[in-house]
Structure formats: C-alpha cells, structure tokens
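With this grant's support, we have settled on a layout for protein records. An illustrative entry appears below exactly as we store it:
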Amino acid sequence: MTRGPWHVAVLMGGWSAERPVSLSSGEGVAKALESRGHTVTRIDMDRNVAARLAEAKADVIFNALHGVPGEDGTVQGMMDLMGLTYTHSGLATSVIAIDKQLTKQALVPHGIPMPGGHIVSSESLFTADPLPRPYVLKPVNEGSSVGVAIVTAEGNYGNPIARDSVGPWQDFPELLAEPYIRGRELTTAVLGDEALLVTELRPKSGFYDFDAKYTDGMTEHVCPADLPPEITKACKAIALRAHQLLGCKGASRADFRWDDTQGIEGLFLLEVNTQPGMTPLSLVPEQAAKLGIDYATLVETIVEEALTRAGGGTDG
C-alpha cells in the first residue's frame, strides 16, 4: 500500500479525565498528517459523534481518545457497527485492557508477572486496610495514573483511611488494591509487532501521577534506560507478549515497576495502554524518535496499519 493521500478523521477530546491529553494528542496527529499532504477532519467527540463520523466519510478514523468511553470498547463497538476503519485496538481488546483486573486474568495465566491484589469497595476502606501497608489503590478502569493513591504507614490519609481524606475513594465505588512495589518506573512501547525501547521515568517529586506525566519538567525521561541487559530484554519481551495476548493493534505501551534489589524477580507489568498518548511529552513518540522514526512517520505507520488490516485505503 502506498502512503495516501488519505482522508483521516482524527477523533479526540471526549469527556474523560484525560480530555486535555486527548486534545493535545489529536492536534499533534492532525498537524502531522496535514504536513504529509493528507486531508484531516478534526472531531472533538460529543454525544453526536456517530453522525459526525458518518458525515466525515473518511478513509480511516485515527482514534486519539484516552480513557472512557474512547478506550474501553464503547467507541470501538460503535465504529464496528458503522463499518468504519479505525486505528489502534478493537472492541474486545479495549474492554479487557482498560480493566486492570481483567488484564490480569488474561495475562497472568500465560506467565506474565503482575502484582497481586483484589477489588475492594471504597466504603470498606474506612473500616480496615485491604492489604498490609504500603499498598496502592487505583480505579479499575482509568488510565494515566488518574486516581492513584499510595497508602503508607506514615501517610496522612488516616489509619484506617478517613472518610473525609482526599483520594480516589471519594470518586469511585470500587478500587483495585495492590501491594506497593518499590523501585523504578519503566515503560516499553510496541509498534506493530516490535517492542521499541525501555524508558525509565524519574519524577522530580512524588510518584509518576497524572501531573508528572503531562507537565513539562516534572519527570525526567531516561531513554534508553540504563538497565542490566536482562531487564531491558525482559521488558521488551513482556511488552510484546502482552500486546499479542491481548490482541492489541497499532501502538501500545506497557508500564512496569522494577524493584532493582530483586533482579528479574522484581519486575512486574502494571498495565497495557492500548491508546498511548501522542502529545509532545508522550513516551511512544519519544521512543520512536530515538530509533529514527519521526513523529509524522509514526502517525502514518499507525494509520497505514489500520488501513492494511481493513484491506482498504486510498492510493495516491
């Protein structure tokens, strides 16, 4: 297949907590495609999104949405019903990967190392801890570290957690409780059937939360990460295997914690992001650039994969 010119509808925005990130991703994608001579229709998702997608009559939809409902299978199912071609993962993969507990059920039986833990009601937290401290509480189906709390013995949430303390228990009726894994934050991008590099993320303060991810200067990216060769190899192998087991398409990103006092036994996959960010601070474009793949080429590669998978496309 030749690279266009195509008519691409870039779907972005929406109403999740990650709306600002999605708008940044989408605008970057749109400008990159326009710079390569493609026609772009920008669609900021609202409740009339189906009608707007139908009116666009694009060759392909670039799904630049993050979070619910753009990353959890809802929008994918709608586009499947409409017979539209779109980038990134499909309905079933999106349903599983957005849900951290379902992801564990899909991957752990195949030998993918992930933290233990279980789902708890937020109400129960005000009576007793679900795990020994320190432990992590996170929403089951949010990305970008939205609503993550690290509960420590020295923390100010109270013991047990106080009902009026600020945390995800105020916004979500259920949370996933996991043991806290000390150590280093690592991430690996997968593009197509290739794991790219490993990046270490070093927040200047606190942990790698939503603000640290998307505020310039708050996190140092070490790419490629300075790691023992066996850890680099394991991250790339696990990221690619998880991408394949879940049925991911286009690009994905696997996030890890590594307790460097435990060697390979201290490496755990935390989650797989099926629609990783494409902002100026995002990790997939950064890893691609280190391998000589510029941003516009990365975007075109993701679009071309979707068109090839659909068996269509416009030759120019």
